Amino acid sequence: MSENVKPRLNVLVFNCGYVGTGVGDYGKAMNRALRATGEVELQQVTGQCTCEDRVGRNFHAGESHCAYNLLEQWSRRLDRRRGRLAGRPFDSPERPWSAAVRGARYRRLVSEHAPDVVHYHLDRNYYGLEPLRALMRSPRPPVVVTVHEIEDWGPTARVALRDVDAVLVHSKDLAQRLCDELGLVDNVRVVAHGAPVPESCPSAEGRNGIGCFGHLGAVKGTRYLVGALRRLARRGLRPTVRFFGNYSQEERQAVEASLRRHGLLDQAHFEGFVDGGAFHQAMESVAIVAAPYLASAGSGIVSYALAHGAAVVCTSVGALPETVGDAGRVVPPRRVRALESVLAELLEDSTVTAELGRQGWERARNELAWPVIAERLVSVLREAIGRCDRNRIAGGERGESREALAGHGRQR
Fold first, then answer.
1. Is there a contact between 150 and 165 (Cβ–Cβ < 8 Å)?
2. Residue 393 — φ and ψ, nearest 5°?
3. What is the DSSP letter of 296?
4. Residue 301 in 3-state DSSP?
């Protein structure tokens, strides 16, 4: 092999299969982009993380893990019973029994596949902190953890993440928070949320109204959007507003009640969850994508909106300003008048709206396209391997650790 040709990486990915905001192809798109680099061989482990999915039957791990399925069923029942006695809901992160079973299961998967590096997507349900701690026990391969959401970090997070070879986040804001709250400095890397970018900017013709994507909880700032719509109506501006996402019936009813109270319900259309081609069509059907969020660790919705040529209006929280850059309109959170002013400007001048959409598409093509993001991610994976190697106590321990893991898998 030529000295200039880097060896292909065997990557074992632990990634949640459930996304409620309409970007459910995120994992698949990322994996396709990684494979397209020619530098990565992926093995995917996927588990649906809804509370209704009691067994975790979506693991691509082979029939040899049926015993773990049974163990996990019983451990989840024990945790639910324990949680009820303590007054905790089922989706509480404090589920030690099932977490212990998952940790053992994940180590078994690592021993079977003997990857060059593990990429673990942290979430509150299936790929949590306790199973991660099990993965971090020696012997182990290099581990990269992607943190997607802002959490109330506790001591467990500090212990679980401090020795990870690389912690990957989608925003500088979250990286700073990890530094401030957990003391993570050397191993945090920022890679933006990617998006599929069309070869040419989608046409501005035929677009109309405002689109909102995702659930309708308080953190999405929907109440402030309703306030802005009320003020726009006084100006004689009554745009169509379309809500896409996996929102609950209670969330929809609350927004409907607010719109009805202000005489705005006729402007609203609740489209529900869309995915795949329907999601991309939805992005290209609206002139403006509004994201008046109160917090954001790394919004894929904004990346997708830029890629599809929609004019983006968002708040100055979390990852949103650095994702949008100069290619969108950024307003302070909870500022109804500022949101109204920006929306009025775009609604009254379609030329400005179209130009903003074109600038967003150019930014996405240069900074957020999957090939660009994939190259950055491969760099992080290779850096993590180098960091892990440097931290070994004795030379050649990495190879011995992999053999030890593989031997453990063969003994079962």
1. no
2. -70, -45
3. -
4. helix
d(CA 232, CA 288): 15
Give me the DSSP letters along 39-103.
SEEEEEEEE---TT--S-TT--S-GGGHHHHHHHHHHHHHHHHHHHHHT--TT-S--HHHHHHHH
Q: What CATH number matches the domain at 210-368, 3.40.50.720, 3.40.190.10, 3.40.50.2000, 3.40.50.790?
A: 3.40.50.2000
- Provide the whole-model pTM: 0.80
Q: What is the DSSP letter of 306?
A: H
In the chain, where are the structural domains located? 9-194+369-411, 210-368
Do 9-194+369-411 and 210-368 have matching folds? yes
* 242 neighbors 282 (Cβ within 8 angstroms): yes
Closest CA to 26 of 194, 174, 147, 146: 194
Superfamily assignment of 9-194+369-411 in CATH? Glycogen Phosphorylase B; (3.40.50.2000)
Nearest-5° Cα angle at 158, 96 to 81: 15
The span from the CA of 194 to the CA of 299, in Å, is 10
Spatial contact of 345 and 352, defined as CB atoms under 8 Å apart: yes
Quick one: CA torsion of 243, 245, 247, 253, rounded to 10 degrees?
Answer: 20
CB 246: neighbour CB atoms within 10 A?
19
Compute the distance between CA of residue 163 and CA of residue 150 in angstroms, rounded to an integer. Answer: 20
Q: How confident is the model at residue 360 (pLDDT cuts 50, 70, 90)?
A: very high
Number of other CB atoms surrounding residue 177 within 10 Å: 20
- Read off the pLDDT band of 93 (50, 70, 90): very low
